[in-house]
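Quick one, C-alpha cells below. Sequence please?
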C-alpha cells in the first residue's frame, strides 16, 4: 500500500493547479529604493509573477515530486491534466521570456527544462570547437548560482 492520494479526481488536481497558477501570478514583493529627490529610502509593495513549475506545484500542495509522478503522471485518469500542466509550464516560461518578465540571458537555462536546446553555431579549427553559447562549459552548480542571482534580481 502506497501513500494515499491528495487528489481523488482529475478535477481536484485541475482545481489545485489553477490555484497554484493564481498564486504564481500574484506574488507580492517588497522593494526598497533610495529616493535622491527626498534623500530617503522608499519601500513599495509590488506584484510579481513567478514561473509555473511542477516542482513549485508540489511544494504548493505539500507533496514530493516523486509522489506526484508516481501517483498522478503514470495513471490514465490523470494523464490529460498532467500533460496540460507540463504544457502550461512550458508556455508560461516562453511567455515570460517573450514579454521580458524573465531576462533573455536565462532562456537557454529555463527552456532546456522543456526539451529545447540553445542553438549553437560551431566552427572547428584543429580540435577546438568554438560556440556562441555563453553557458557552454559552466558546471551545474555555476548554472544554479547564475539562476539564483538572476531570480534575486527579478524579485528585487
Amino acid at each position: 500500500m502506497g501513500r494515499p492520494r491528495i487528489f481523488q479526481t482529475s478535477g481536484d488536481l485541475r482545481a489545485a493547479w489553477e490555484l497554484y497558477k493564481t498564486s504564481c501570478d500574484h506574488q507580492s514583493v517588497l522593494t526598497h529604493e533610495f529616493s535622491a529627490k527626498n534623500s530617503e529610502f522608499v519601500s513599495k509593495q509590488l506584484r510579481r509573477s513567478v514561473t509555473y513549475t511542477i516542482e513549485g506545484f508540489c511544494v504548493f500542495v505539500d507533496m514530493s515530486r516523486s509522489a506526484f509522478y508516481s501517483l498522478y503522471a503514470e495513471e490514465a485518469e490523470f494523464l490529460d491534466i498532467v500533460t496540460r500542466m507540463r504544457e502550461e509550464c512550458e508556455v508560461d516560461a516562453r511567455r515570460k521570456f517573450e514579454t521580458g518578465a524573465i531576462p533573455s540571458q536565462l532562456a537557454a537555462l529555463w527552456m532546456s527544462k522543456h526539451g529545447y536546446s540553445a542553438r549553437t553555431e560551431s566552427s572547428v579549427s584543429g580540435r577546438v570547437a568554438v560556440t556562441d553559447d555563453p553557458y557552454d562549459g559552466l558546471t551545474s552548480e555555476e548554472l544554479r548560482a547564475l539562476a539564483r542571482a538572476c531570480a534575486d534580481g527579478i524579485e528585487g
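The two ends are 45 Å apart (CA to CA). Residues 127-132 have pLDDT under 50 and may be disordered.
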